[in-house]
């Protein structure tokens, strides 16, 4: 139990620092802004209490908002994806989620990509909608969502592949 707690604590701090110090400074072509910190929410253990992940999502989003002075939009988008995470898990993993036996290191890559993609697109659409807060600029919101989501999904999948601990048979 303490191992899971320490891994998640380190993941929280490292992703927070990476987001604030590196990924928030990437603004490629004005549209690509990766939000890799959502990996904390995506990879949080499934068996834990739902209120715990919602609170921790709010905490990581609020921490990033305080560092970047973004007025709570990261916290709002993070809480939303933490809230709808069970539906995305059920859609992506099916029976594995029903039995609470999901291990992200051993599931198929396609299932992981589907799961990461669903929550990333929802996060980014919410983030850019709250940032713009003007539906007359829906094309700009969709463009930012598309480009940033693609880049974030690629980074998240690469990070999970690099740091996965698959057991060799």
UniProtKB/TrEMBL annotation:
Which domain of life, per UniProt? Bacteria
| InterPro entries per the UniProt record, alphabetical | Cell_shape_determining_MreD (IPR007227)
Q: Which residues, by range, are in coiled-coil regions?
A: none
Name one cellular component (GO) term.
plasma membrane
Q: Name one GO biological process term.
A: regulation of cell shape
Q: For this UniProt record, give its keywords in alphabetical order, as a comma-separated list.
A: Cell membrane, Cell shape, Membrane, Transmembrane, Transmembrane helix
Topology relative to the lipid bilayer, per the entry, is: Multi-pass membrane protein
- Family the entry assigns: Belongs to the MreD family.
Query: What name goes with this protein?
Result: Rod shape-determining protein MreD
């Amino acid at each position: 139990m303490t191992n899971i707690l320490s891994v998640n604590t380190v993941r929280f701090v490292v992703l927070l620092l990476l987001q604030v110090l590196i990924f928030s400074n990437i603004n490629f072509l004005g549209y690509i802004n990766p939000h890799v910190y959502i990996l904390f929410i995506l990879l949080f253990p499934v068996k834990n209490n739902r209120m715990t992940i919602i609170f921790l999502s709010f905490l990581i989003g609020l921490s990033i908002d305080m560092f970047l002075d973004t007025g709570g939009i990261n916290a709002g988008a993070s809480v939303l994806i933490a809230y709808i995470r069970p539906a995305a898990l059920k859609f992506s993993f099916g029976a594995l989620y029903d039995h609470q036996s999901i291990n992200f290191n051993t599931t198929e890559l396609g299932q992981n990509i589907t799961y990461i993609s669903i929550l990333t697109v929802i996060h980014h659409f919410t983030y850019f909608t709250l940032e713009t807060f003007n539906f007359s600029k829906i094309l700009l919101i969709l463009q930012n969502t598309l480009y940033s989501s693609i880049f974030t999904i690629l980074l998240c999948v690469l990070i999970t592949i690099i740091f996965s601990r698959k057991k060799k048979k």
